[in-house]
Specification:
With 160 residues, the chain is mainly α. It is built from 6 helices and 2 strands.
């Protein structure tokens, strides 16, 4: 695919897009429910999953269709944590090679790659400060009740 990545319609609406020609009315709408945690996630990634589900639910960005991205995020986050611990355990950013020469710690490379991947996944999930600035959450409109609401509700108006 060439050019910019398409922006999801829900995100366009949250950002305040008002031109109907720019909104895809036929875009699939995944259920706003928590995806099932994959059984294969190891324990550190499981802890991150539980935190992530809570954060995304609070921001109303949780979708069952995001399971794979969320799993990748959790595994990558756990990998970055593990690599950071290993960097400290093995002597920091620069270590000695078997021949005694200084070299970049191999764990540092793993940590940096995980950090890059984590950043791109966080953007996809709306978890970075920059990604959040592009989202405008509209307060819910108060529900209209009474005879007018019943009439207009049948006609497709007033909160229909």
């Amino acid at each position: 695919m060439r050019g910019r990545k398409p922006i999801p319609t829900a995100l366009k609406v949250l950002r305040g897009e008002t031109r109907p020609s720019r909104l895809n009315q036929n875009e699939p709408q995944p259920a706003r429910t928590a995806p099932k945690m994959p059984a294969w996630l190891h324990e550190p990634a499981r802890k991150i999953w539980k935190q992530l589900v809570k954060q995304l639910a609070e921001m109303n960005l949780l979708s069952a269709a995001d399971e794979a991205v969320m799993a990748a995020y959790c595994v990558t986050y756990a990998r970055m944590q593990q690599a950071e611990v290993k960097v400290r355990e093995t002597g920091g950013d620069v270590v000695r090679s078997p021949n005694g020469f200084p070299q970049v710690n191999p764990w540092l490379s793993i940590q940096r790659e995980a950090q890059k991947e984590l950043k791109s996944l966080a953007i996809e999930l709306g978890l970075t400060p920059c990604a959040r600035t592009k989202i405008k959450v509209q307060p819910p409109r108060p529900a209209v009740t009474g005879p007018k609401a019943e009439y207009f509700g049948k006609c497709g108006g007033l909160n229909a």
